[in-house]
Amino acid sequence: MYVVAGLPKSIHKEVVDTFQARFPLAIVKGIPSPTRDGALYSAALINTLVRSVGEFAVRRRTRGNAQPTPGSITLLFVPAPDQERLLRRFDFVVMSAPLPTLVVRDEHYQQLRHDREAAVTALVEAVKASSDARANLNHVTRRLGYRSDNEALLLPPRNFMTDDGDLVATFTDFRQGHRLWTDRLKELGPTALTRDDVPARIQHQQTRRVFVDSRSIGFFIAHPAAYDGAAREVAIDDVVDLLLDTLRSLYRFGGALEPGIHHDAQRSNGSALDGAIFECCEKGRISAKAAYANVYPNDFVRVGDYTAADR
């Protein structure tokens, strides 16, 4: 799926239709922005765009453990002073691909985002096989596909804790281009653990290399047989936040996640969580009492014993 944002209403539909015709197998969504150059992404526009993407993905995604449809989501947007509001709302769901040529001004001092041919060219260039966006998405897709304990891009951003907080700022650096997609986040680990450390989870003579956060909680990728927590069904007329939450459970930086994939979060010495704090997208801030918790990509936390925690 390609999501187009930042074009003025006067050319938006024609450009999107032309782009769709060039790539008939792709799914193209988009919402026009204001005619006036400057701030392009109001809260209302962003919510409409998220709803359009979310409703389609919920309508089309398959059930069970099969891959969701569409297989990837790339946001093609015109850079603007308020672009971070757009990117922040999509969180870490899409691969962001700015279209810098469209902010160049013509002889009339008008941005080229108003020029139909320039807009079509920018979109086509952004998605061709040799483009940065395609290369970045391909790299992310490969990393996600390994479903590995030691793949940092799979970590739940609001529940893996570091000395500086959670991973939201780190993942934002990826999204904003401040970190390369080849960055393995080695400062986070992984840590080699054996059965002597976590006897209930690691087999004899096995070593698992997992990320252990600042609370000494290890994040173990669950076995595919345990992917029983696929994204919840959301009626297409539900609020935007719920649709976005479903997208967060199915996509990471534009790449599709296997529905139900999650980490089993457990103390790296094998002991119980003993009141460890988690941020659940549904329950809010909770204190977990069980031996371990299931933590999903959208930061939904499933745990057998917990209480609400103060902020």
Characterization of the model:
The protein contains seven helices and 15 strands. With 311 residues, it is an alpha+beta fold. A six-stranded antiparallel beta sheet has the order 5-6-7-10-13-14, with no helix packed on it. A hairpin with a 3-residue loop joins β11 and β12. The longest helix is centred in the first third of the chain and has 18 residues.
Q: Topology of this protein?
A:
Layout: E1 2-8, H1 9-22, E2 28-33, H2 43-60, E3 74-77, H3 83-90, E4 95-98, H4 116-127, H5 132-145, H6 168-175, E5 191-194, E6 207-212, E7 217-221, H7 240-250, E8 251-252, E9 255-256, E10 263-267, E11 276-280, E12 284-288, E13 293-295, E14 301-302, E15 306-308
Parallel strand pairs: 1-2, 1-3, 3-4
Antiparallel strand pairs: 5-6, 6-7, 7-10, 8-9, 10-13, 11-12, 12-15, 13-14
Helix pairs in contact: 1-4, 2-3, 2-7
